[in-house]
Design brief:
This protein has helices at 9-14, 59-80, 125-144; strands at residues 22-25, 29-33, 43-47, 84-88, 104-109. It is globular, with a radius of gyration of 15 Å. It is α+β, with helices and mostly antiparallel strands and 145 residues long. The model has no long low-confidence stretch (mean pLDDT 95). It has one domain (9-144): HIT-like (HIT family, subunit A, 2-Layer Sandwich), CATH 3.30.428. Helix 2 (59-80) crosses helix 3 (125-144). A five-stranded antiparallel β-sheet has the order 1-2-3-5-4.
Length: 145
């Protein structure tokens, strides 16, 4: 298996070397907006520990990652008034993985609306900021229950 690349974009985001539209952070995970969303509210959850993908992840990384993916799924659906949510994760290039740091896509889905293309156009910063704000507010509201 190929070694982890410490210079991948998500590692750089975790080190503060690249910007991100942050939604959530805890000791184990970091969540942020996908800058080329397939749907409004499309976001990503990554572990803070270095791992290429699910195939080389320490099992201790997976539980907190999926707990946050669930929490973010609920919040993104509520914030975007979505009808459903797709949770996706790719492993190696043949599957469609393009950034080689384990990440989970959380993609709000809407009845009668197709998802945009993978690697589609970059979203405007003000839209990403606004969607991140809405999801953070939905996370806060869910935590209060």
């Amino acid at each position: 298996m190929t070694a982890y690349d410490n210079d991948n974009p998500f590692a750089k985001i975790l080190r503060g070397e690249l910007p991100a539209y942050k939604i959530y952070e805890d000791a184990e995970t970091f969540a942020f907006m996908d800058i080329m969303p397939r749907s409004p509210g499309h976001c990503l959850v990554i572990p803070k520990r270095p791992c290429r993908n699910l195939l080389d992840a320490d099992p201790a990384v997976l539980a907190p990652l999926m707990q946050v993916a669930r929490k973010l799924s609920r919040a993104a659906m509520a914030a975007m008034d979505a009808d459903g949510v797709m949770v996706a994760q790719f492993n190696e290039a043949a599957s469609g993985q393009t950034v080689f740091h384990l990440h989970v896509h959380v993609i709000p889905c809407f009845e009668g609306r197709r998802l945009g293309p993978e690697g589609g156009p970059m979203e405007k910063p003000d839209v990403l900021n606004e969607n991140a704000r809405k999801i953070r507010e939905a996370l806060d509201a869910d935590a209060e229950r």
